[in-house]
Amino acid sequence: MKLFKDPLQVLLVFAKEDSQSNGFCWACEKGNFRCSMARTPESALECFLEKHHDLVIIDHRHSRHFDAEALCRSIRAVNSSENTVIVAVVKRYVQLADPPFPFLLLLRYVENANMMACYNELLQLEHGEVRAQFKLRAGNAIFTALEQSQEAIEITSEDQVIQYVNPAYESIMGYQQGELIGKEIMEVPKSEKNKPDLLETINSCIRKGKEWQGIYYAKKKNGDSIQQNVKITPVIGQGGKIRHYVSINRPLNDNNKVRCVSNIQSSKHKDRRKGSLDVRSTTSRGSDGSSQRRHSSMARIHSMTIEAPITKVINIINAAQESSPMPVAEALDRVLEILRTTELYSPQFGTKDEDPHTNDLVGGMALRRLSGNEYILATKQLYLFSKPHHIPSHLTTPLSLNDIPPRIAETMENEESWDFDIVNLEAATMRRPLTYLGMKIFSRFGVCEFLNCPEATLRSWLQVIEANYHSSNSYHNSSHAADVLHATAYFLCKERVKQSLDPIDEVAALIAATVHDVDHPGRTNSFLCNAGSELAILYNDTAVLESHHAALAFQITTRDDKCNIFKNIERNEYRTLRQAIIDMVLATEMTKHFEHVNKFVNSINKPLAALEENGESVKSILTSPENRILVKRMLIKCADISNPCRPQELCIEWAGRISEEYFAQTDEEKRQGLPVVMPVFDRNTCSIPKSQISFIDYFITDMFDAWDAFADLPNLMQHLDNNFKYWKGLDERKLHSLRPPPE
């Protein structure tokens, strides 16, 4: 039911101002609700009589100020309060021995002055009880329309028991309501003029959830048959099942028979859940010139020979439905509903009954899309990024691999091993591991030879990229970039990956890993959108950081020939390389996490398993351009969040760093009055083991299971298992810290 509704009107009744009343006032302002405040029962009743609020919130915590129950009775005594929702704010600690909650106050809110808690409560009320009451009010108007309609209307239950007929039906058919209500429709006499199988055809159609329209002979109470144009529409209700059938019957005469038959042919088996548009019926509605042009354009669109693949799929399913038994047809209906969503590979996130750590990770990483009114701009200065750094003077002298200090060279000796300790390299290089590790890995993969650039240019490029990482970030700094680069290089050496990718893919992957978080501010996309940052505005609140990382990387690279590693490659090769780098950096955005993983599993892992089972060649799957893109996306995604698959000490170190960065964001959100997107990451209350368990359960396990099935990574999966058990052990001991206390 789509009806226009005015903004929610809220009446707050609090004897005095406190943090709880302020919380609801702020929530009303944020939700653009119309808010009134009353301090006494008298003023509250007077205000209610004037404005008839949708929602009344009464302070029931302190009886010394006023009698909340008496006020509620007074409001309920007003005739217009029938559809008003009343909520009582009660004390946090209510003893079981307390008297029963008064029946008039149907809802209660346990005091919680947190502004977002108040806002969430108002949203739940708006979309729950208030909306239900609004529909009840609207129902009166709708029944009035039914009563006044000149068309005969009959409503039956899913069991085809008659539940309503309007006066027009009584007038046309000669029955009174009392003679029909509660009767099964099969008990009403039928006309012999209909074809024997017509009723079976109608029932078969409407039970599939499809609308039926056609000519039907009904028998009046006096025994006469009357020819009618009948449209029967199934109504989906509780549980997503058909709960009612609405039949609209119009007697036919010679003037409207021809038009009626034409309409019937065009819409006889229209599926109510498909929302399809029939061009023939559309073009018959208007006579003015502009209307005809629009209808002509619509007809041309429908007659185009260019058809999207998804349209072909839907048409095939529609055709299959017509001859399918009901269980299959219902299943195909569900398939069609899924196909019409915009994000086919992304799961739907709920908001209730979830683990709070998972819920906050989903929200904090911007996995749950916010509606327009959920964003709030900072009232203070907008959050800005630092400007790109210049290359520090002490780093400008290009050095070759042979000039690397012995201590650093020794630290990097086992960089080809998964258990390589990036934290040791961070210490040895004075927090500049990316340049040194980059030089060694890029040399091992022959990147300079591929790009036809001098080693000095590569060195300068690595230095300026590293200089644009924020060393003040506890997690998103150049050490994280070096860690992701190391993981990327490790994955590129796996046999299945090497079979899939070309040299240009390998170079793109290494460069993308190096730049994937350049100039990261240590805050999430959700924070930047809420703070109204320049980049959130620039990138329309979509993949803000990832877009910035990719764009800035190319700006830095191409603005100075001394560090332009792309200077000597051909234009076409550069365009291919650039596109691959951008695609991989954007793949690290977590809103597309499940889409990338599910596409990888369905497009690569499952077909590979089927081919291998039959002993067939897998080369065609591995090397197709589309699948190479999926492999590269999966590779950098796994490299980016591989911390839980590292040796335990490294896993613990990274967990501490990311937690500290989230703590700092929560602190800043509170200081600036922004929505706290990850409330569980409060440094005073957060359980780091719980947060790691949730992260592994929700994001890591399925993704690395899929990646392991493709690339064969038993050592990573063993680390993952060990680390999960470690965090689980801490959590079972009710510990919130990174490590157990010393014995």
Question: Could you characterize what this model shows?
Answer:
By secondary structure, this protein is an alpha/beta fold. The protein folds into 3 domains: about 10-145, Response regulator (Rossmann fold, 3-Layer(aba) Sandwich), CATH 3.40.50; about 150-275, PAS domain (Beta-Lactamase, 2-Layer Sandwich); about 355-730, 3'5'-cyclic nucleotide phosphodiesterase, catalytic domain (Catalytic domain of cyclic nucleotide phosphodiesterase 4b2b). Helices cover about 50% and strands about 10% of the residues. The chain is built from 31 helices and 10 strands. The strands form 2 sheets. A 5-stranded parallel beta sheet has the order 2-1-3-4-5, sandwiched between helices. A 5-stranded antiparallel beta sheet has the order 7-6-10-9-8. The longest helix is centred in the first third of the chain and has 34 residues, at about 115-150. It is globular and about 105 Å long. Residues about 95-105, about 260-305 and about 365-400 have low confidence and may be disordered.
Compact description:
By secondary structure, the chain is an alpha/beta fold. About 50% of the residues lie in helices and about 10% in strands. The protein folds into 3 domains: about 140 residues, Response regulator (Rossmann fold, 3-Layer(aba) Sandwich), CATH 3.40.50; about 120 residues, Beta-Lactamase (2-Layer Sandwich), CATH 3.30.450; about 375 residues, Orthogonal Bundle (Catalytic domain of cyclic nucleotide phosphodiesterase 4b2b), CATH 1.10.1300.10.
